Each structure stands twice: as C-alpha cells, then as structure tokens.
Amino acid sequence: MNRRHLLCCGGAALGFFTSLSSELQAAPLRSADNPPSTKRAPLDSELQALLARCWQGLALDQLWDVHTHLLGNGDSGSGCRLSASMDQWWHPLEMLRKRVITSAACAQPGSQGGMDQAYVQRLLQLAADFPAGARWLLYAFDEALDEHGQARPDWTTFQTPDSYAAVTAQSQPERLGWVASIHPYRPDALERLSEAERRGAVAIKWLPSSMNIYLRDHRLRPFYDRLATLQWPLIVHCGEEHAVPGAQRQDLGNPLLLREPLAHGVRVIAAHCASLGQALDLDHARPRPRPAFELFGRLMDEADGRTRLLGDISAVFQFNRAAEVWHQLLRREDWHERLLHGSDYPLPAVRPLHQLGQLRRAGLLDERDSAALQRLRDFNPLLFDLALKRCVRSGGQRFSPRVFASARHFARPLS
User: Fold this and answer.
1) Residue 413, pLDDT score
2) Cβ(204)–Cβ(174) under 8 Å?
C-alpha cells in the first residue's frame, strides 16, 4: 500500500456525515485537547464590518439553523450512543472519525462534565455570538431497523433519542428547538409521533440509506398522512452518504423517491439539496446513474415540488461538491423561496471541509472576503458558516435573505 493510498483511506474517515477524500490531509484540524478559551479577544473592525453585512436585511427572529446535529456517548444518562467500533483499535478509520468530530465539537470523551454536556455547552457558546432571535434545531437520530422492525445495532453508527433532544432544547428555549427521528418501521411509530408532538418537536428527520427506510413502502402511508395533518416538514437526507454507513443502502437515498411523501401532501426538506453523488434515474425504462443534484432539480420544478419540496443548503459549499451545484443554487433565484439555511454543525469546525481557495477559483468568493472568513472561522465556526453563505455569489447573484428566514417553513413556532 503506497503513501497516497494511505492518505486517501485516512481522509475517508474524517467525514462523519459527508464523504471526504485525501485532500483533507492538507489542512490542520482543531483538537478539543486544547479547546478555545471562553475569554476571546473582541473582533477587529474588519470582521465586525463583515458580520454587519451578514445581518443586513435578515429577519433575525426567523433565522433558524435547520440542520444541527446533537451527539453524545450517554455519559450523562442521555441514552445517546456511538458505535462500539469507534473505540476499537482494529477499526482505525472509525476511531479517527470519532476523534475528528468530537474534536470539532470540543467534546471528546473525558471532557470536564462529560462528553454529552461538553457538546451542548460548546454549541451554546458559539450560539451566544449571534443576535437574539437566532435558533438551532437539534436533530434526534433513531437507530437502524431491518424490514421486520427489529433493531440492528450493527447498522447504527450513532443514536440520539428523541427524549434527549427534547430535554436539551427545553433547557434553552430561546436558542434551541428540536427535530424528532422516528423509524417508520416501528410498530409504535405513530404513538411516538404523537409523543414528539406533545414534547414540542417541529419536524421529523430520516437518513434512509443508513436507517434502512424505503420511502415507497406502503407501511409509511399512515405516517405520511399524519405528517401532512400536522403540517410538519419531513427532512430527508438525499444523495450519497458514506460517513454514516448504517444499512449501506445508497439506493434508498435516491431523490426521486421523495415523490411518495410529496404525493401524500407532506412538505419535504431534501437535506443538502441532494448535492453529493449519483442516483439512478428511475424515470427511464433502463435507469442510468445521474447526479443526485440533477434529480433534485427535476423535482423542484415539478408541480408537487413547486408547492411542497424544499432543500436545506447545509454542507453544499464543502470541497467535495461540484461547482455546478454552487452556481445553480445561487442563480436559481426562483428556488430561493424554498431553500433553507442549515450548518450541519459541528462540521463547520472541521477545517479541511471548506476550501476557500476552491471557491475563489470557481468565481464565488472575493479575495478580501476569503481572508476575513478564514479569520472568522478561528473565532466562531458557526458565524463562519453563515457568513460564507452570505458572501458567495455567482454572476452577481447571492442568496436571497429569504433563504435565511427559515422559521416560516415550520408550522409550529418555538415558544
């Protein structure tokens, strides 16, 4: 095995939620072994000016980050768990994956107060730099089940119970809300949905390829009908997924499968706008692979899509997305009403994922903004993520402020 092969293998493990490559080896990672001090120097005038531009025109009480992961190892009694393989030396890539993501969140096992607590404290520290009104939707994440509704721990990379997401959000209601995750193959799925409603959830999140969910399964129809009645969005990861392998059913992430919940009257949010990888074009008698983003775009322009399909723009400016994705999302101004801001936290803190030089070469970013963004990332990766999305442009077209007014897409307001 040559050195390049080793680098590629190591890079693949660094993307906990998004596939990566050997390019990740070119930049340093921040480690939670030496987490940032809570006593930080104030922002200089250049960064203050950059942020002032970011807030301009935004309705801050509508600024919800609709894609925020909540993770832990259960050391607080939360019920969270990570796959045992992440602590087994004979799975070195899994161990590296865990170290990178927990370092990015400044929440490594053994952190003061425990990993569960450190993860939430770091998120709230970063959120405190945002104006009042900005909020983050925390994702629960259900375990993988087989076709008979039996739990498959060997398919479950991590699990975050609804109960923990609910309690965490309720502890800081001015900053946090939560999104439930209920596997629809569970016999008590509808009862769990009612419980999530009672506890204040605002949406449901699925990752079909990892959790083993076939969106056309007839068993899902009562679940879809209930979501339509609640007017809750169904957030579905579409496109390829390599970092949370789970059931390893890439075919279940095909964006065209979203037609099923859309046909049942459900509002669907395609996570990451299906911006990574390929999927079979099922509209042809002999399906061939096409970019998943192309299939997402097809749905956005169909009748059901124009009324009920949305896309969150979390992770779309990572280095492993095609420049065509960036330019089309920015230039399709008619889509902006249905695009939503999301960070995919804690990924903005994993430095190699965003290659600002690549965005400059694609004509999306000015040199001056790039330099300021680099420094802002050191101060607060969540501010960096928002500022990056406010700075990028294609042919003079930037994201409309409506993209960042994401609260309006959720029928149930946060109290």
Assistant:
1) 52
2) no
Measured CA angle at 327 (ends 321, 332), to 5 deg: 125
Strand order in the sheet with 268-271: 204-206, 234-237, 268-271, 309-312, 339-340
387, 50 in Cβ contact below 8 A? Answer: yes
- Assign 10 to helix, strand or coil: helix
Contact assessment for residue 366 and residue 394, using Cβ atoms and an 8 Å cutoff: no
* Dihedral pair phi/psi, residue 301, rounded to 5°: -100, 0
Q: How far apart are CA 276 and CA 291, in angstroms?
A: 8
| pTM of the complete model | 0.90
> What does DSSP assign to residue 140?
P
The encoded tokens of residue 254 equal: 């095909």
Tokens representing 336 are: 């902006």
Assigned token pair, 396: 């003079």
**Position of tokens 């309705």?**
59
- For helices 381-391 and 115-127, give the axis angle rounded to 10 degrees: 40
Q: What span, in angstroms and rounded, lies between the C-alpha atoms of 328 and 392?
A: 12
Separation between Cα atoms, residue 62 and residue 406, nearest integer Å: 6
Beta strands, E only, 314-404: 339-340
**Tokens standing for residue 292:** 């998943």
Is the backbone of residue 288 left (phi > 0), alpha (psi -120 to 50) or beta? beta
- Residue showing tokens 């192309």: 294
| Distance separating alpha carbons of residues 219 and 359, to the nearest angstrom | 43
Q: Three-state SS across 259-282?
A: HHHHHCCCCEEEEHHHCCCEEECC
H helices of 32-182, in order, are 45-55, 92-104, 115-127, 162-171
Query: Residue 248: what pLDDT?
Result: 83
DSSP state of 143: P
Mean pLDDT for each consecutive 10-residue tract of the chain (415 residues)? Answer: 37 41 37 48 90 96 97 94 78 80 84 90 97 97 95 90 98 97 98 98 97 97 97 96 80 97 98 97 96 98 97 97 98 98 96 95 96 95 98 97 96 56
Q: How far apart are the C-alpha atoms of 342 and 364, rounded to whole Å?
A: 19
CA distance 48 to 34: 26
